[in-house]
Amino acid sequence: MLKSVCIFCGSSPGKNKQYVKVAKRLGAFMAQNDFRLIYGGASIGIMGAIAEKILQDSGEVVGIMPQSIIDLEVAHSGLSEFIKTESMHERKNLMHEMSDLFIALPGGMGTMDEICETITWAQLDFHQKPTIIFNFEGYYDHFIAHIHQMNKEGFYADEHLKLFKVCNSYEELEALLVSLKG
């Protein structure tokens, strides 16, 4: 049974106000359906918005953050559980160990690093956990096109295209989560 959802997303709200709104909508859905959030632990941006909504709706939120980022004073202080790590590598390993599935919402280079590593680890058979790219309002169109370009050029095998799902609407994401939860 899938319980813990790792969300990769921006510590910035982004320019499109809909990013925060859809993150809050997902947070409400997660709390209502007893999904536990595993995330980077920030109180700001999309990260802070989804965590705050889940907490407001009595859901469970686990934040994982290296001390160097805690020192920047962006850590969320009111989480169900907060885990301090020594490095980003330790943080990402814990996020992977504690999670049953992964979702990428809009975000920057950290989000790209996390979703690429998650897909690569699946490619290397380090995990078989569902991985979802939430292509909200076409945010990941170019990234997805580049993956297909890598495939076309022989750098990404056909079978690896099945290692992740792309959801192009919130409704599609919610339906996939319901089906995965079982």
What attributes characterize this protein structure?
seven-stranded parallel beta sheet, 45% helix, 182 residues, globular, Rossmann fold, 7 strands, 7 helices, alpha/beta
What Rg, in angstroms, do the CA atoms define? 16 Å
Uncertain residue ranges: none
The amount of beta strand, in percent, is 15-25%
What's the CATH architecture name? Answer: 3-Layer(aba) Sandwich
Question: Helix-strand pattern, N to C?
Answer: EHEHEHEHEHEHEH
Number of strands: 7
| Amino-to-carboxy terminus distance | 7 Å
Overall pLDDT metric: 96
Summarize the amount of helix as a percent range. Answer: 40-55%
Q: Please, how many helices?
A: 7
Largest sheet, in brief, is: 7 strands, parallel
Q: Tally the structural domains.
A: 1
What structural class results from the helix and strand content? alpha/beta
Q: Which topology does CATH recognise?
A: Rossmann fold
Question: Mind telling me the CATH class?
Answer: Alpha Beta
Helix and strand arrangement:
Layout: E1 4-8, H1 18-32, E2 36-39, H2 45-56, E3 61-66, H3 67-70, E4 81-85, H4 88-98, E5 101-104, H5 109-123, E6 131-134, H6 141-152, E7 165-167, H7 170-181
Parallel strand pairs: 1-2, 1-5, 2-3, 3-4, 5-6, 6-7
Helix pairs in contact: 1-2
